[in-house]
Write a structure and sequence with these properties.
Shape: globular
Order of helices and strands: HEEHHEEEEHHEEEEH
Helix content: 25-40%
Number of strands: 10
Strand order of the largest sheet: 6-5-4-3-7-8-9-10
Distance between the termini: 111 Å
Largest sheet: 8 strands, antiparallel
Number of helices: 6
Oligomer: single chain
Length: 236
């Protein structure tokens, strides 16, 4: 009987000590050993691990949801071209578009396209176009003194401001286009900005839409090139 008690005690001690024994060895009086399942169960640490894993997954899901929420509120606007801004203005106010300028130098507010439209009744309208969506943000009537001069310059021409903007777009991103009714040869004046930030001025023919470098701008570029060459020579 002592042997039975000792063996059973060892097995119970193993269980109490956190062992993995799942059965008790019991020796009967006749010496035959039998194995009986133990009702004692080791502590289930895996359940704590599962709980910690679930908490980690919940935190990851929460962070993912936050990231998705941030992505939803971050809007990357599309770039509305000068031609598209003019088209939007004319859908709002019928007439002849005379100029379109991307006003991105005013720190007091967001950039907008300013489009001037001369209506058939000789009323001037200034419209502000959202460069991200092309929507008309506002408009107001302006008073100009050169209406007759503008109509005279456009008489017999076939290239609109919208078409001039599309033609000039081959030279870079058009930031402005407007009628030059004062020059010796009437043209659409356009300004473009290259991907490296270089700005250029162009003339667009009112009848053929041919794009040529603005003479004053070309002369300035030649002078800059000559100055750079002189500076390089002086360094030597």
């Amino acid at each position: 009987m002592k042997r039975n008690i000792v063996i059973a005690g060892i097995a119970v001690a193993a269980l109490v000590g956190g062992g993995t024994a799942t059965a008790l060895a019991v020796t009967s009086d006749d010496g035959a050993a039998t194995t009986k399942p133990s009702s004692a169960r080791p502590a289930d640490d895996s359940r704590d691990d599962d709980a910690r894993d679930n908490d980690a997954r919940d935190n990851d899901d929460s962070q993912s949801d936050d990231s998705r929420a941030d992505d939803d509120t971050t809007v990357t606007p599309g770039k509305v071209t000068a031609a598209e801004a003019i088209a939007s203005a004319l859908r709002h106010t019928s007439g002849t578009a005379i100029s379109a300028d991307l006003d991105d130098k005013d720190d007091s507010g967001p950039a907008v396209w300013d489009v001037d439209v001369l209506a058939k009744n000789s009323t001037w309208h200034s419209l502000q176009i959202d460069p991200a969506t092309g929507k008309v943000l506002g408009s107001h009537v302006e008073h100009e003194d050169d209406t007759a001069q503008v109509r005279a310059a456009l008489k017999g021409t076939s290239v609109s401001a919208e078409e001039a903007a599309k033609a000039a777009a081959a030279k870079g991103t058009v930031t402005s286009v407007g009628l030059d009714e004062d020059g010796p040869s009437k043209t659409w004046d356009a300004e473009t900005r290259a991907t490296n930030g270089t700005e250029r001025e162009w003339n667009v023919d009112l009848k053929t839409a041919q794009v040529t470098a603005d003479k004053s701008d070309a002369d300035s570029a030649d002078n800059d090139s000559a100055d750079d060459a002189d500076n390089d020579g002086s360094d030597d």
